Amino acid sequence: MSETGRVLIAVPDANRRARLRAALAGLGVDEVPGVEEALAHLREQRPDLVLAAVVPHGELAPLLEAVPTLVFGPVRETCMEALQGGAVDFLVEPFDDRELCCRVDLRLREARERRQAAEREKELLAEAHMAAEAFESRKRAEAALRESEERFRLASEAISGVVYDWDVIPDRVRRSQGLLGLLGHHPEDVDHVVGWWTQQIHPEDWEAASTSVYASLDSGEPLFSAEYRMRHRDGHWVHVWDRGLILRDETGRPVRVVGSTVDISDRKRVEEELKAASEAKDRFLATLSHELRTPLTPVLVLVSSLERDDRVPDWLRGQLNLVRRNVELESRLIDDLLDLTRVTSGKLELRRGAVDLGDVLAHALRASRPEIASKGLRLETDLHPGSLLAWADAPRLTQVFWNLLNNAVKFTPETGTITVRSRPAGRETVIEVQDTGMGIDPEVLPRIFGAFEQAGRGITRRFGGLGLGLAVSRAIIRLHGGDLTAASPGAGRGATFTIRLPAGVPEGDLDETLAGFVQSPPAFQRNLRLLLVEDHIDTAEAMADLLRDMGHEVTVARSLAEAREAAEREDGGLDLVISDLGLPDGSGLDLMRELSGRHGLPGIALSGYGMDEDIRRSREAGFTAHLTKPISLQTLQEAILQAALR
C-alpha cells in the first residue's frame, strides 16, 4: 500500500472482516458488524474510507451520505445501485487481495486529494471575500493583494499539481510553480491566458472538458470538475483532474475562477491494469470453456444416437442415461463459470418474452425427475392450476429452477422429500423449492449466495460442484426485478429457497401471448440435405451418423475450402449448413456470409464459445442459431426445425 489512512470495515461476518483486515495490513483498520455501528463509530472517529458489504432496502444510504464508502457484493447491478446512491467505488465478488488493495489505495489517494482541495478551496474562498471587501480602499486592496499572492504561493507549494487563479473578464491567469512538475513549463514562460491551457488539452478530450467547464460557468454552479489529458512539454500525455471554484458578481456573472489541476496518471494506469486483468480473465474462461466443451460433443452425440436405437438393450440404456446426465452436468458447470463472468462484468443479458412460469417450472421438473427417481426421493408439488404470466427469459429461468432442484437432490438423503410450490401473490409470483436435506447453518446462511461458497470445504469434497449455481441464480432473478432468498431452521433440518418475480407482461404483448399459448407450432417432417462443416474428426463422424439416423442426407466438410467446393458442387441442392466456427483455414462466420449471400442457405453455428459477443457475431454473419457445445439431441432438432421453417 502506497497510501496511509484509516479504514473502517462494516461487514456482518466476523471471518470476512478478519480476511479484509489481513489484506489491508499496514493501514489503520477498525471494524464493526453493520451500518448502525458504523454510524455510531463516525461520531467518535471519522475514517478516510469505509469498506462495506452491500445490504438491501437502502440501509447503506446514511453511510454513503456521511463518508466515502467502497461497497462490495456478488451482483454487479446491486453494486451499481449503491454507486448511484453515493458510493465512491465498488468491487464485485469474487476479488483477490491485490485488486482490493489497488482499489483501497486509489480511494485513499483521492480522499487525501479531496481533503487538500477542500482546505485549499476554503482558503481561496476566504481570500476572495477579503479581496472583494478591499475595494473600499485602495490601500486595503493593495495590502489584500499582497496577502493574497503570498497565500497563493504557499498553497500552491503545498500540493502536487498546479494552482491557478483566472480573472475571467480580462482573461488573465496566474499559475503556480506546480505547472513545471505537471507539464514541464515554467509559469513565467507561457501565455497568461486561458487559451494557452486549452491548446494543451488532448484533441479527443477537448470537447468534453470544455463542455463541463463552460456548462458550470453558464448554469450558475459554484464548482466544476473534469478529467482529461494534457500534453507535456516533452510530448507525452498526462491524465489530470481539474477542479475549480467559480466566484460571481452581484448579477451572477462569473468574474473569477480559482482551482487546481493534479496528475492522476497513476490512478488511470491502475484502472487500465484492472480492466486488462478482467478482460484477460474473460478470454481465459472463454478459451477454457471451448477446450472443455469440444471433446464432450461427440460423447453426447453418440449417446443420443444410441438412445434412439431400438436394438440397444434396457440395461445398457440405463448406463447411457448415466453418461448423458454427467456430460450435461459438466456442460452446466462450464455454463455457470461463464455466467459468473457475465454477472460480474455486467454483461449478462436477458432475452425477455411473455412466458407462463408454470410451463417453465414444469419443464425444469421433467428434466430433474430422473435424478430425483434415481436417488429414491419423493417429489411433492403444490402448483397453481392457472397461468402465471411473466415478462421473462424462459431459458434463464429454467436454468434457475433446475439449479434449485439439482441442489435439493444433491443435499437431500435417500428417502427424503422435495416439495415445489407456486402461487400468485399480488403483483408477484412466488415459487418455493423445499427439501428435507442437510440444511444450512445459521452462520453460513448470510453468505450462501456468494460465488464459490459451499458452506465449507467438506461440502465441496463430499458433493462436488463449484459453488456458483446459487450466485448465478440470484443474479438472474434480480435482473428480472425479483429476488431469491434462502431459509433454514439449521443443520439437518432442510432448507427452503423462495423466488419472487414480478407478475404480468407489458400490456401490448398480452393478446399475442394468449394467442401463442393456444397455437401449436407447425409440424415439419421433410428430410433435409445438410452440409456439416466440422474439423474435429470425432465430432464430425458422430454428428453425421446422428443426422443420417434422423433421416437427413449429410455431406461432411472439414475445412472452409471443402465446404465451398461442396456448396458449388451441390449448386442449390442444399437446404441447410451446420458449421463449426473455428476452421483450420478460416472462419465459419466468413463461410456463412458466402453461402447465405450466394446460395441463400440458412445456417446453424456450432462453437465451444458461448459468450454474448460470440452469439452476436454469429447472428450478424447470417446464422439462424448459435449452439454451444456439447449439443443435445433435442436442442439440435429444435434448431434444425426453426432454421428450415425460416
* Class based on secondary structure composition and strand pairing: alpha/beta
Distance between the termini: 60 Å
SS elements, strand count: 24
Largest sheet: 5 strands, parallel
Could you estimate the helical fraction of the residues in percent?
40-55%
Q: Low-confidence spans: pLDDT under 50, at least 5 residues?
A: 455-466, 510-524
Radius of gyration from the alpha-carbon trace, in angstroms = 32 Å
What is the residue-mean pLDDT, rounded to a whole number?
A: 83
Physical arrangement of strands within the biggest beta sheet? 2-1-3-4-5
Question: Can you walk me through this structure?
Answer:
The protein is of the alpha/beta class and 646 residues long. Helices cover 49% and strands 21% of the residues. The chain contains 22 helices and 24 strands. The strands form six sheets. Strands 2-1-3-4-5 form a five-stranded parallel sheet, with helices on both faces. A five-stranded antiparallel sheet has the order 7-6-10-9-8, sandwiched between helices. Strands 12-14-15-17-16 form a five-stranded mixed sheet. Helix 1 links the parallel strand 1 (6-10) and strand 2 (28-32). Helix 5 (97-133) runs antiparallel to helix 6 (138-157), helix 10 packs antiparallel against helix 12 (314-344) and helix 14 runs antiparallel to helix 16. The longest helix is centred in the N-terminal third of the chain and has 37 residues, at 97-133. It is globular and about 110 Å long. Mean pLDDT is 83; it is low at 455-466 and 510-524.
Keywords:
646 residues, globular, 21% strand, 24 strands, 5-stranded antiparallel β-sheet, 5-stranded parallel β-sheet, alpha/beta
